[in-house]
Design goal:
By secondary structure, this protein is an alpha/beta fold. The chain has one domain: Response regulator (Rossmann fold, 3-Layer(aba) Sandwich). The chain has four helices and five strands, in the order βαβαβαββα. The chain has helices at about 15-25, 40-45, 65-75, 105-115; strands at about 5-10, 30-35, 50-55, 80-85, 100. The relative contact order is 0.17. The model has no long low-confidence stretch (mean pLDDT about 90).
């Protein structure tokens, strides 16, 4: 089953980040699906997603917990962590992800990483 545009899910509790990432991804040709919490993403399901971008620091299930869940359910799904805090310095916890980006991140670097993570 081939899709026209890769689907990138974005999970962040900051509506401004969701909106800016959605605009960035859509302008780059991706289909963006935004979720304000990990729970909302999981209710929607992981099927059909090609890439996941998640904030680390969120209420409820944080980005590390979501990454762990996704790695069990969809080990093939590339996961990128984004953060405005210093958790990214905890390299041991950042294992098992396709990349970590510190806010404010370089949008072109993020798009390049997403492109590299997608199957050719």
């Amino acid at each position: 089953m081939s899709k026209e545009r890769p689907v990138v899910a974005v999970v962040d509790d900051d509506p401004r980040i969701l909106e800016s990432l959605e605009n960035l991804l859509e302008s780059a040709g991706y289909m963006a699906c935004s979720f304000s919490s990990a729970r909302l993403l999981l209710v929607n399901g992981l099927a059909g997603l090609d890439v996941l971008i998640t904030d680390i620091g969120m209420p409820g299930m944080d980005g590390f917990q979501l990454r762990d869940f996704v790695n069990k359910e969809r080990p093939d799904l590339p996961v990128f962590l984004i953060t405005g805090r210093h958790e990214i310095a905890d390299q041991d916890r950042a294992q098992g992800v396709s990349g970590c980006f510190r806010k404010p991140f370089d949008s072109q670097a993020l798009l390049a990483a997403i492109c590299d993570a997608l199957p050719k």
